[in-house]
């Protein structure tokens, strides 16, 4: 099974600042036949459904502000939130969909400093 | 507006059964794979099961394999999760999610708000 490990577990950033969340997979999740990384990022706020932010490691979902950026390849990935807004307070999860079980990172709780 | 609404959660004794359902408005399940994900109290998300768009291919987490059955009913725009032989370890909020394609190995583009399952004597 592929294990997804996020860091840090929690993060406090000033309004307007930059948040960086890392996600590491225990195995390569870059599929060579299509050159795609099978990695998604989700935002989860209390009482709301999780929301897709990024897929294929770096493709922003329609409607997601461009301050959210995904990067990385192979086993190491990053979600960067620039110019942090108050509404970005949430828990962020990465997920691999390369192999079942489609595992998630443990989550990173983002707060305002 | 898109809504996925899970139902069927509740309190059940160990060894009991529950059937969760997920209905959608604003989007279609037809031709899309569907998944269930759970989150136990104080923990992260755990993928539970997925069914292909045509309904013929299913996968399960080892922790539920042989006890849970996923199915989808495109005519009613619903997906279900039959859960048998429940244990305390199955206590969680269960989310349904639409996979972005008819095949299972894709990201989840829409999620529900979840339904709470509590297994306790």
Q: How does this model look, in words?
A:
With 113 residues, chain A is mostly beta strands. Chain A is 0% helix and 50% strand. Chain A is built from no helices and 12 strands. Chain A has strands at residues 4-7, 10-13, 19-25, 30-31, 36-37, 39-44, 51-55, 59-60, 68-73, 76-81, 90-96, 108-112. Chain A has a 6-stranded mixed sheet with strand order 2-12-11-6-7-8, with no helix packed on it. In chain A, strands 1-3-10-9 form a 4-stranded antiparallel sheet, with no helix packed on it. A two-stranded antiparallel sheet of chain A has the order 4-5. In chain A, a hairpin with a 2-residue loop joins strand 9 (68-73) and strand 10. The mean pLDDT of chain A is 97. Chain B is an all-beta fold and 121 residues long. In chain B, 0% of the residues lie in helices and 50% in strands. In chain B, strands 2, 4, 5, 6, 9, 10 and 11 form a 7-stranded mixed sheet that branches. Chain B has a 4-stranded antiparallel sheet with strand order 1-3-8-7, with no helix packed on it. The radius of gyration of chain B is 13 Å and the shape is globular. The A-B interface holds A 38, 40, 42, 47-52, 55-56, 61, 93, 95, 97-107 and B 4, 35, 37, 43-47, 50, 59, 61-62, 95, 97, 100, 104-114.
């Amino acid at each position: 099974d592929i294990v997804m490990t996020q860091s840090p577990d929690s993060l406090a950033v000033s309004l307007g600042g930059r948040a960086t969340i890392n996600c590491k997979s225990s195995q390569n999740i870059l599929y060579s036949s299509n050159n795609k990384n099978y990695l998604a990022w989700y935002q989860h706020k209390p009482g709301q459904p999780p929301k897709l932010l990024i897929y294929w490691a770096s493709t922003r979902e329609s409607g997601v502000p461009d301050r959210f950026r995904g990067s990385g390849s192979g086993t190491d990935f990053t979600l960067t939130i620039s110019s942090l807004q108050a509404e970005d307070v949430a828990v962020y999860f990465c997920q691999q969909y390369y192999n079942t079980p489609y595992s998630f990172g443990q989550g990173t709780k983002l707060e305002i400093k | 507006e898109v809504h996925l609404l899970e139902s069927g959660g509740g309190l059940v004794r160990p060894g009991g059964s529950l059937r969760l359902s997920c209905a959608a408005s604003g989007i279609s399940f037809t031709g899309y794979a569907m998944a269930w994900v759970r989150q136990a109290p104080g923990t992260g998300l755990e993928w539970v099961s997925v069914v292909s768009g045509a309904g013929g291919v299913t996968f399960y987490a080892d922790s539920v394999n042989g006890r849970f059955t996923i199915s989808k009913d495109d005519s009613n725009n619903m997906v279900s999760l039959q859960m048998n032989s429940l244990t305390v370890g199955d206590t969680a909020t269960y989310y349904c999610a639409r996979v972005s394609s008819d095949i299972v190995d894709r990201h989840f583009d829409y999620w529900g708000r979840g339904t709470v399952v509590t297994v306790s004597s």
